[in-house]
Amino acid sequence: MYTVSVSQTLTPSFLITYKVSICDANITSYHALKSMINNP
After folding, report:
1. 31 lies in which domain range?
2. Where on the tree of life does the source sit, at the highest rank (predicted)?
3. 1, 3, 11, 14: least CB-packed within 10 angstroms?
């Protein structure tokens, strides 16, 4: 377990990485869905 100070220091970068990965996943699934619709 991390100490509170360590987790407070690391939290911003964790949140940024989490948000970026979710955004990448959304963009990827969007393009996949779009290509499926365009090429049935």
Report:
1. 1-40
2. Bacteria
3. 1
